[in-house]
Design goal:
alpha+beta, 19% strand, elongated, 11-stranded antiparallel beta sheet
Length: 278
Amino acid sequence: MDENAVTALLLEATDEVAERGFDPADDLRRGRTARRRRRNAATAAALLGTAAAVAVAFLLSAQLAGRPEATEVPAGGPQIVTTTATSSASATSASSTMAPTTSTGTIPAAPTTTADLFGLPAGAEQFNRLLFGVAQDHMDPDHTRLEWSVGFTGSGADATKEWGQKFGWQIPGERGQAMVYPGVGNIPAANRLPCGRYDPQVSRKCTTTVLPNGQKAEVVDSATHREVHWNRPDGTYVFVIVDAVFRNNTTVATKAPLPTLAQLKDFVTDPRLVLPPA
């Protein structure tokens, strides 16, 4: 295309624009209309986004509100105990605290003070160590099953009391855990739980047996639950209760065999099991 042709096209375009004319008001109106459309589209998008977010939040909150809180069973090994322990003493006089079990066969260093975060009576920590050591001697001489725990299961801090503790019993690393609960007391028989009534929801039949020292004791003997209760001639008593499930910690039974009835009989007759003075 030569220069004259290009010039002619430019003149023709200029003439067309001139014929149409330019209306500033009309141009401003079109601009405002376009801007309103953009604003309306943006507002609608924002409202839709907000509505969607509210709907999602509502659905999530409704779903969470209807879902029970998680209650996980410990996956393995000892765990922190939050359930109040049961004492052999009567419900009106019993008080107890429970705490975590630790690794098998080990006892942490003794506390520097008699009172700790569990509110143990003075001397209770030392007595728990005695119970654990005697239980190890008779039931777990290889230190592979019995697990130490801090806390207190019993009642009383003066002359009349029952002191004991629940220890764990399990194969290291297994999910299940059994309970070994020894105790010593001098509470009158009318004010404490008798043999077979440790679990208030289950009444077990007890029988009479003869201990290695010739004294009579009441016992429960099954593959998943054993008890030995000996009322000593001096008015005090010793008991030990073992159960395949440590219900303060888990709902799964241990796979380890429980201590035998003979071992429990030897335990209750150990002369070291003497209550500390008031």
